[in-house]
Amino acid sequence: MSAPEPPPSTREVRENHRFDEAKLEAWWKDAVGPTEGLVVRQFAGGQSNPTFWIGDGARGYVLRKKPPGKLLPKAHMVEREHRVMKALAETDVPVPEMVALCEDAEVIGTPFFVMEQLEGRIFWNVQLPKVETPAERTALYEELARVLAAIHQVDVEAVGLADFGRPSGYVERQVARWTKQYAASKTDEVRTMDALIAHLEANVPADDTTTLTHGDYRLDNLVFHPTEPRCLGVLDWELSTLGHPFADLAYTCMLYHVALPNVGGLLGVDFAATGIPTEAAFIDRYVAHGGPRPSEGDWAYFKAFGLFRLAAIAQGVYARSLQGNASNANAGMFGAAVGHLSKIGCQLLELEA
User: What is the widest separation between alpha-carbon atoms in the chain?
Assistant: First the structure.
């Protein structure tokens, strides 16, 4: 058997993300299996937790670790990522197989976990420009809706995740958490963020439905089969918890209101011509697969909350780029996204800022 080849989306490990590969190899032999030498490459994406491809001579794996440097409280929780994906292994939610978890920071500087490498497609642009037919675009979005509904229908008691978060008060806590995270990484005054925070704090919806939530559910966090519109695994569970399903749904649907660098957006898309469903049609498919239907009164709030949280995340990435330890070399562009995203959130809520 020939040695596995690194994926084309990998590169040499960035200088500020290098670690002691000899220590990793010693741990690997005990925790994963024999090797005649590891090949370590870094995936180009990943703004939060640095992600690496590891070849051990027989097969390829993926390693996720915390970034170096001073970290915000409760951020970069790779241990939670490992726990939730391991718990979901026997459910209708597709996830990669978990191989090993290392919580000893002495090995490569931070805790990390190793999982199987999924061979498939990741769609970075939500408009799916490289997909050949409208029918396939429709099918891919159908799968996006199906998998999200499956996440929200997981029996958390049965899979051992009943204590994965608090059973109520998710939205209020999340607004407080991301307000605190934003304040901790703030570099400039942004009036639209201030207005958004004030509204979200004062108008928390009464609906307190609680399910398993992914926390960062979007098209490019799904790996699809090489030729079929079928999800092989959902990635990036760092923000997962027990929370409100509409927070996930709104986070996915906020792309109908934006056009972001690299990711794109669905603002102004010709839905009939492309085969991409409208926002209302996507929600209908999510509901058809067993997800709850959002009330009209709360829907704008949840979308604005999703934009606020994404803006707070962007601020964190930007702040880390100023410190020199962000996971992506293009992280500096995220500073401008904070004002842009929060402005759209204010517009959805008809706020003046």
Answer: 63
CATH superfamily of the domain spanning 10-116 = Phosphorylase Kinase; domain 1 (3.30.200.20)
CB atoms within 10 A of CB 33: 12
Query: In this predicted model, what pLDDT tens digit does every residue of 158-195 receive, in sequence order?
Result: 999 999 999 899 999 999 999 999 999 888 888 999 99
Domains of the chain: which residue ranges? 10-116, 134-348
For residues 252, 88, 150, 129, the Cα torsion angle rounded to the nearest 10 degrees is 40
Task: For residue 321, give every residue at least 6 positions away whose Cβ sits within 8 Å of its Cβ, in sequence order, or none.
Answer: 331, 332, 334, 335
Q: What pTM did the predictor assign?
A: 0.88
Distance CA 92, CA 150 (A): 6
- How are the residues of the chain apportioned to helix, strand and coil, as percentages rounded to the nearest 5? 40, 10, 45
Q: How far apart are CA 160 and CA 290, in angstroms?
A: 22
Rounded CA-CA distance 145/154 in Å is 15
Domain 134-348: CATH class, spelled out: alpha beta
